[in-house]
Amino acid sequence: MRGNGNGNNDERWVRKKATGVRAWLLLQANGDTEVVEAGKHTIMRRTGLPARDLRILDPLLSYPSTVLGRERAIVINLEHIKAIIIAHEVLLLNSRDPSVTPFVDELRARILRHRHATTSNPKLEMDNPEDGGMKILPFEFVALEACLEAACSVLENEAKTLEQEAHPALDKLTSKISTLNLERVRQIKSRLVAITGRVQKVRDELEHLLDDDEDMAEMYLTDKLVQQQFETSSAEEDHDGDAMDNLLQPDIDEDGTHPEISLEPGGANTSDEDHQNAQHPSSLLRRDSRASTTYSATTKQLDVEELEMPLEAYFVQIDGTLNKLSTLREYVDDTEDYINIMLDDKQNHLLQMGVMLTTATLVVSAFVVVAGIFGMNIKIELFNPDIAGMREFLWTVGGSTAGTIFLYVVAIAWCKHKRLLE
């Protein structure tokens, strides 16, 4: 029986993998969390995203850092965070990753604070910031800010850790050039290049968002949802208003006149404007709808500017991290230049020593020639023991040695004169 159970589990796992079923952590606007297993088509229906946007979150594919604003959702692929934000919930893909657990706790805490602020002060969201009131950010911006802060904080912490490891290793390398120190600096440089690339991608994505107001406007999911509901209710009220106009339209008498209709007890005292509005209530709804649309169009730019504030703040943070990494890269390059200069200097000393040794070998060869000549089996007076003795031998050896030293000094002086030696 156990074997059959394991076989069924394996079959379900293979079937889920084939259909693209993954575990998603669902964080709702009220703070509730739930792990749901959903396939690609289910997520597409729930979020309104096309399949190409979901491929951005695929952990098996290598996509750069991306923040996309769509009609009903925001797609976020920043470092270890792969999430879909809707107007009332967040879908997190890799929630089981240990590096994502702190982000989940922080996001849930932010959602709970947002819910508490919204429920305790329901009218606070409508206050005008220009009048000194505080405006509560929409749910999607709270989640987006949490994602940006988590990604920027992770990169900044990695940059700080790398900087703390790099400076002692580089200083040790300048004091002592060894294989171990060179290998340590090589690893630090590899990590520096990788982190710099990741930071650059996040910075470029934020810069792209800040340069495109339309992309930022697409991220106002709550405003678009409210606007859609308002348009739906306005359309229904317009339809009801037209039906009411038909009901309130009086019948024409035989003489061609309309009987007077009063909607209030004091109908005779009602003004002409109120009477006209009473006869055509749909005109009031249309005028209110136009006023709301104008208000929304007027405040849209202000809302975009309010979204620019957190984006610019995180852009400044990630740009500071990039500048810190650039400074560290310059320090590494300077250290490499210094090491190369030291190595070149040592190589020059070795070359000079080689020249001196080669010169010494050359002049000693002259002494060897003298020794070779005296080693030949020939008859000369110097070899006659009756004529020559120890004094002649010492003069011969001493003269040859002095001549060799003289030739060496002359050769070294000539090299220094030609600036071949220091």
Helix-strand blueprint:
Layout: H1 2-19, E1 22-28, E2 33-38, H2 40-47, H3 51-55, E3 66-69, E4 74-78, E5 81-85, E6 89-92, H4 101-120, H5 139-175, H6 179-211, H7 213-217, H8 221-248, H9 272-279, H10 281-374, H11 390-417
Antiparallel strand pairs: 1-2, 1-6, 3-4, 4-5, 5-6
Characterization of this structure:
67% of the residues lie in helices and 7% in strands. With 422 residues, it is α+β, with helices and mostly antiparallel strands. Strands 2-1-6-5-4-3 form a six-stranded antiparallel beta sheet. Strand 4 and strand 5 form a beta hairpin. Helix 10 packs antiparallel against helix 11. The longest helix is centred in the C-terminal third of the chain and has 94 residues.
H-E order:
HEEHHEEEEHHHHHHHH
Mean pLDDT: 78
- Helix proportion: 55-70%
Q: Total number of β-strand segments?
A: 6
CA-based shape? rod-shaped
Percent of residues in beta strands: 5-15%
- The largest sheet has its strands arranged as 2-1-6-5-4-3
Oligomer: single chain
